[in-house]
Amino acid sequence: MNAIVDRLREQVLEACGRRRLEIRGGGSKSWYGASDPEAEPLEVGMLSGIIRYEPSELVLTAYGGTPLAEVEALLAQHRQWLPFSPPHFADSATIGGAVASGLSGPTRWGHGALRDYVLGVRVLDGQGRVLRFGGEVMKNVAGYDVSRLFAGSLGTLGVILEVSLKVLPLPPATRTLRFACSQDEAIERFNRLAGQPLPLSAGVWWQGESTLRLAGARAAVEAAATRLGGEVLPEEAARVFWEDVREQRLPAWKLQEGEVLWRLALPPTTPAWADAEDALVEWGGGLRWLRRPAADDSWFERARAVGGHAMRWRGARTGGRVFAPRGAAERAIEARLKAAFDPDGVFARRLPLE
C-alpha cells in the first residue's frame, strides 16, 4: 500500500496552487454536500483491505477504501457490528467514505454517533504530509481528539488513508414494536421513554405509526416489550424495515420533480409543526425529514429558531443554499482548520464558508 500512498501524495503535491481535487472512494455519497464542479477526482478506492482486527479487543483498523460491506461481513462473522449503522446508499460504499460523511443510521439514537466510535486515523493532508492521530484504544489522546475532526469533514481536510474504529458485540436479542399514534404523541413517547432504563436502540415515526427497536440482553428486551405493548413485527419484517430506514428507501425519501428533501436536526422535544404532518421522524425526535418545493427556504430559519439546523439533503438545488448559514465563530474555526491541513485549498470545499 505504500506505493499507492506515494502516488496519492504526488498527485496532491502536483495539484498544490494549480487545481482542486475532490476525494473519491466508492462514489456512493458523491452527491452529499456542496460539490465543486471544477474539481478533479482523486481516486482512493484502490487503498483497500483490513489492516488489523482483534475481536477480543473490539477494535478494527482498515484502509479508507475498504468496502463498507466487507467490514460489516467480517464483523458479523464474529457477532459484532458497527452500532451507528452507517448508510451505504450503494454497494460501492467504503469505510473511509462512511467516516468522511459522518452519517449515522437509525440506531444512532440508542448507540451513539459515528464520531463516537472513531479511535484514530492516518491521513494525507493538502501539503502532502502523512499524519497519524489517535490510535486503537479509547483513551489515547491528550488534549483535542483530532481524529474525530475527520468524521463528517467531507474530504475538505485530507484523504483518510486508514481508520481505527471501536466495534461492539451484536445485541443478544432484539424486538421491534409498532404503535398507531400521531407525530406529537410519538415525539412525547420517544422523549419519555428515553429517560427510562430501557434497551432502546432506534425510534421512527411515519404516517401515523411509531416503530421502536429494542436491543440488548434477552431478559431486558423481553421485559421492556411486555411493558410497552404494541404490535411485534416478525424478525424478517423488522430487519427489512430498519434496513430501508438506514438506506432511505421508504416513500418519505422519494422526491418528485422540483422538490427538495430537507434534513432537520432539532432538539428532540420540538413539537411537530402543523404544516409538517407528513414528516418522517428519527432519532427519538431529533431528526426530521420533509419533502417541500424547491423555492421554500424557510426551513433554515425555522430550524434555527428552535435551536436546530437544516440542510437541503437531496433534490433541486439550483440557486439555493445547501447548508444552513454558520456564525462568525464557526467560520473562523473552519478557516483555521483549513489553513492547518490544506492552506493551498487543494481539496475542494464541500462545506463552503458562507
Q: What is the alpha-carbon Rg in Å?
A: 21 Å
Category by helix and strand content: alpha+beta
What is the count of helical runs?
9
Q: Any idea how many domains?
A: 3
CATH architecture annotation of the largest domain:
2-Layer Sandwich
What's the gist of this structure?
The chain is of the alpha+beta class and 354 residues long. Helices cover 26% and strands 26% of the residues.
What is the topology?
Layout: H1 2-15, E1 21-24, E2 40-43, E3 50-54, E4 59-63, H2 68-77, E5 80-81, H3 95-101, H4 108-111, E6 118-125, E7 130-134, E8 158-166, E9 168-169, E10 173-180, H5 183-194, E11 200-206, E12 209-216, H6 218-228, E13 231-232, H7 235-246, E14 259-265, E15 280-282, E16 287-293, H8 298-305, E17 309-315, H9 328-341
Parallel strand pairs: 1-2
Antiparallel strand pairs: 3-4, 4-8, 5-9, 6-7, 6-8, 10-12, 10-13, 11-12, 14-16, 14-17, 15-16
Q: What does this entry look like structurally?
A:
- The chain has three domains: about 1-170 and about 335-340, Uridine Diphospho-n-acetylenolpyruvylglucosamine Reductase, domain 3 (2-Layer Sandwich), CATH 3.30.465; about 175-245, Alpha-Beta Plaits, CATH 3.30.70; about 250-315.
- Strand 15 (about 280) and strand 16 (about 285-295) form a beta hairpin.
- It is α+β, with helices and mostly antiparallel strands.
- It has nine helices and 17 strands.
- Helix content is about 25%, strand content about 25%.
- A five-stranded antiparallel β-sheet has the order 3-4-8-6-7. Strands 11-12-10-13 form a four-stranded antiparallel β-sheet.
- The radius of gyration is 21 Å and the shape is globular.
